[in-house]
User: Which sequence fits this backbone?
């Protein structure tokens, strides 16, 4: 059953008047790239498996769209999962999932790439494939079906989705997507079979084809190891990195409708040297690479001319750590003065300098200032390796209130390893202390919002060994906060423990989890990130049907020498190193910021050739010397132990 | 401070059919920003440009006559403004005319009298003429909008039949009241005719001012 783009277009005209926010489904925005389908060799669909409103604010998608469309013989078009009213109409009227640009059915594309930044998009991915009429399972697809690829942060543990994705792209995607397309084109020219194409793709640095491996388990159900079923498949699969961040995208699509972020996103730096032990992004995005101030200013200039946006987001995992941050902020303010431009600078460190930075942005809106202490006691902050003193926190909040902000938002997590009820209660004390500072400075206008989320142990982090709090414990902790964090000027936000469980199961899931995901989807699970759709019972039922115990994935204390289902995916940071980090956390030992001293996490030895070919200080790891190449790993990197 | 008031006539076309009124305003603002034209912003907590649309256009309706007044803080030649805007327009907007008007001129909304819409019926409406005649013959047509009763009849000014389009769809033209306190909506008329408005294409053809 195939349906042409014009038939889809005709049917859409009849169903759009019946759905909410039809502007999500039409495409045709400023800066969209519409190429002639017939004249282009390879057709790539880029899918963000949630609403348009969310997906259009995803920088990764914008980067890949731009990269691919720069190629003459390639076109890339977008697709998003429709909200349930639209899905209902599409299924009823026989409209498959289509691309916004040319309205071609997804099944007509050569390659379909899913963006999976977080685990709660898994069921939507299955739903998107189903709505596209593409068989859900990799082994059910044939020569007429597109190759299904997935990338994004969640795919550093690809195993739970292994049955549905033909090839994962692990790591920085912007350059390797072109390589994937080139290899695909060569295979097609030689009339290779689907199997052979996948094998060829597996030879690209960063590509993981799960069908080429088999997983084994111990009698007690614990993962044992993985074996190749094809000799030439790589093991481990090393994440792909780009040594130097390319010029930022400046011609991004401007949606007609309101989306979550209506702004020019400019990534100023990738990675983070701080090494907070809970932080997945901080571990998997090493090494740290910065863009130059000049490059950023020029990119903003171009992007404003191309989009007309009123806001720029200077994005990174920790803006304060960008080395020329003050210079950047001052130059941005000076360069764009009088242009009615808002500049947002998220992820600032807890130091009064952060208030200076925001001041330098000359933004008149002083509504809210966000800080992320993550834990409320100095002891706990040592465990998670975010060693900020409480006095430093208070001093920072004083500086913020002093400069005219009324509302300070504090991010905390509960459920860190070894956390007690006293540690949780300390959140209340910290918030009250901050509020007291505020009241002293600006009186009763001062407000403190505690935004409390539940800690989820993530693969490839030093906390991958630890157990997650049970629902009952999380509920008790939230209850404690609700009872005590009240009163004028105090606000508490918390997350549902049930939703946390889903994230926790999927984060450290193995291949057997694929069947749970499938069963859950089959019984109606989708839009997990949306409160109105998430259904806990349905997931428990899916575990039951597949005879798996959810607590095996979350509450189990894991032994130090256990092998993990994601061990064959290499982030460049060695397991030996994160294991030591875990042990240090148990001893309350902290690891300093690695920008001044290398602690041998593994990145340099793993990428030493790349580093040698790319000298310079845009890459924050130490330079690798030409002459010492043979025994470089032991010579230039001091071992901290 | 120097202020100049420009009246912009523009069309909202197919790609922006499902862009709501606030978002149209936003799209216009960004068009001015891309063209680097000197929009005057309100000062204060949340600076907004001064863009004033004559009449909100409901979602799902295209138009070949939308009018907006905007303020600049610098005088720029009208032709130049028109050219630069058109270069910066998104696919769903087209600038038709730009003129400088008196700063003291009455605001658009108070001057607006009627709006004319063409309605294309995508499925055959077998007794269209008869239904229209009947509708216009009534003394009052009581309907409910947002929980409130109102009489549609005085909002309907006149109608005429148009020749069928290329796909042989029936078409009509209706003129409705568009003054501030009495705005007739074309979907209401289609609905009152007993026809599902989802099966029509509605296009605003013209605005009439005092």
Assistant:
């Amino acid at each position: 059953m195939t349906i042409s783009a014009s038939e889809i277009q005709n049917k859409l005209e009849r169903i759009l008047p019946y759905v909410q926010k039809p502007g999500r489904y039409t495409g045709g925005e400023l800066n969209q790239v519409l190429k002639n389908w017939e004249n282009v060799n390879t057709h790539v669909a880029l899918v963000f498996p949630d609403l348009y409103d969310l997906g259009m604010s995803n920088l990764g998608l914008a980067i890949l769209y731009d990269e691919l469309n720069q190629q003459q013989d390639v076109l890339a078009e977008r697709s998003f999962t429709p909200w349930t009213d639209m899905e209902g109409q599409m299924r009823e009227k026989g409209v498959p999932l289509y691309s916004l640009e040319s309205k071609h059915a997804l099944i007509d594309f050569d390659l379909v790439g899913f963006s999976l930044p977080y685990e709660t998009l898994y069921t939507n991915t299955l739903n998107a494939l189903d709505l596209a009429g593409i068989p859900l399972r990799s082994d059910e697809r044939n020569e007429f079906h597109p190759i299904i690829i997935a990338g994004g942060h969640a795919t550093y543990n690809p195993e739970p989705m292994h049955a549905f994705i033909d090839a994962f792209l692990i790591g920085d995607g912007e350059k390797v997507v072109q390589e994937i397309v080139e290899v695909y084109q060569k295979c097609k020219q030689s009339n290779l079979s689907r199997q052979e194409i996948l094998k060829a793709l597996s030879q690209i640095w960063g590509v993981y084809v799960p069908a080429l491996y088999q997983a084994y388990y111990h009698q007690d159900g614990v993962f044992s190891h993985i074996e190749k079923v094809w000799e030439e498949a790589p093991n481990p699969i090393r994440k792909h990195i780009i040594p130097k961040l390319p010029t930022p995208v400046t011609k991004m699509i401007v949606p007609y409708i309101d989306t979550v972020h209506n702004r020019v996103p400019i990534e100023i730096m990738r990675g983070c040297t701080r090494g907070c032990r809970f932080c997945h992004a901080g571990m998997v995005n090493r090494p740290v690479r910065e863009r130059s101030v000049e490059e950023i200013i020029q990119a903003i200039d171009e992007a404003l001319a191309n989009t007309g946006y009123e806001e720029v987001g200077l994005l990174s995992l920790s803006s304060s750590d960008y080395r020329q941050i003050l210079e950047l902020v001052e130059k941005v303010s000076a360069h764009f003065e009088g242009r009615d431009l808002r500049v947002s600078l998220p992820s600032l460190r807890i130091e009064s300098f952060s208030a200076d930075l925001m001041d330098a942005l000359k933004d008149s809106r002083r509504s809210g200032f966000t800080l992320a202490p993550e834990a409320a006691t100095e002891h706990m902050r040592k465990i998670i390796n975010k060693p900020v003193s409480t006095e430093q926190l208070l001093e920072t909040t004083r500086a913020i209130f002093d400069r005219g902000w009324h509302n300070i938002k504090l991010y905390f997590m509960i459920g860190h390893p070894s956390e007690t009820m006293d540690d949780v209660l300390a959140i209340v004390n910290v918030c009250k202390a901050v509020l007291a500072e505020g009241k002293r400075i600006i009186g009763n206008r001062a407000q403190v919002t505690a935004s409390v989320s539940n800690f989820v142990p993530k693969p490839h982090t030093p906390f991958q060994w630890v157990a997650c709090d049970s629902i009952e414990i999380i509920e008790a902790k939230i209850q404690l906060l609700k009872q005590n964090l009240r009163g004028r000027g105090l606000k508490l936000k918390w997350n549902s423990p049930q939703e946390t469980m889903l994230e926790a199961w999927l984060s450290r899931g193995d291949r057997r989890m694929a069947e749970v995901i499938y069963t859950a989807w089959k019984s109606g699970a989708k839009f997990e990130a949306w409160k109105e759709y998430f259904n806990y019972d349905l997931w428990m039922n899916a575990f039951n049907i597949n005879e798996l115990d959810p607590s095996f994935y979350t509450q189990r204390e894991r032994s130090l020498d256990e092998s993990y289902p994601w061990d064959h995916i290499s982030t460049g940071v060695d397991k030996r190193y994160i294991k030591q980090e875990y042990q240090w956390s148990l001893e309350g030992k902290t690891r300093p910021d690695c920008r001044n001293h290398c602690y041998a996490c593994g990145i340099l030895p793993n990428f030493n050739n790349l580093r040698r070919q790319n000298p310079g200080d845009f890459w924050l790891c130490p330079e690798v010397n030409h002459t010492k190449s043979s025994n470089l790993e032991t010579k230039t990197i001091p071992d901290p132990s | 401070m120097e202020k100049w008031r420009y009246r912009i006539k523009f069309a909202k076309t197919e790609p922006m059919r499902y862009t709501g009124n606030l978002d149209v305003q936003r799209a216009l603002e960004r068009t001015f920003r891309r063209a680097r034209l000197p929009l005057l912003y309100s000062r204060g907590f949340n600076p907004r440009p001064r863009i004033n649309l004559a009449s909100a256009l409901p979602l799902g309706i295209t138009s070949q006559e939308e009018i907006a007044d905007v303020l600049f803080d610098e005088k720029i030649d009208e032709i130049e403004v028109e050219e630069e805007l058109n270069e910066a327009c998104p696919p769903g907007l087209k600038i038709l005319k730009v003129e400088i008007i008196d700063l003291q001129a009455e605001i658009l909304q108070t001057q607006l009298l009627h709006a004319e819409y063409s309605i294309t019926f995508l499925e055959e409406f077998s007794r269209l003429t008869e239904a229209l005649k009947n509708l216009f013959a009534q003394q009052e047509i009581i309907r409910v909008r947002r929980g409130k009763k109102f009489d549609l009849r005085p909002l309907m000014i006149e109608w005429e039949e148009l020749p069928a389009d290329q796909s042989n769809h029936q078409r009509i033209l209706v003129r409705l009241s568009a003054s501030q306190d009495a705005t007739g909506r074309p979907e209401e008329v289609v609905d009152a005719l007993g026809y599902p408005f989802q099966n029509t294409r509605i296009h605003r053809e013209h605005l009439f001012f005092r």
Observations:
- The radius of gyration of chain A is 25 Å.
- Chain A touches chain B at residues 13-14, 16-18, 21-23, 26-30, 254, 256-258, 304-310, 340, 364-365 (CB under 8 Å).
- The longest strand of chain A covers residues 407-414.
- The longest helix of chain A spans residues 421-442.
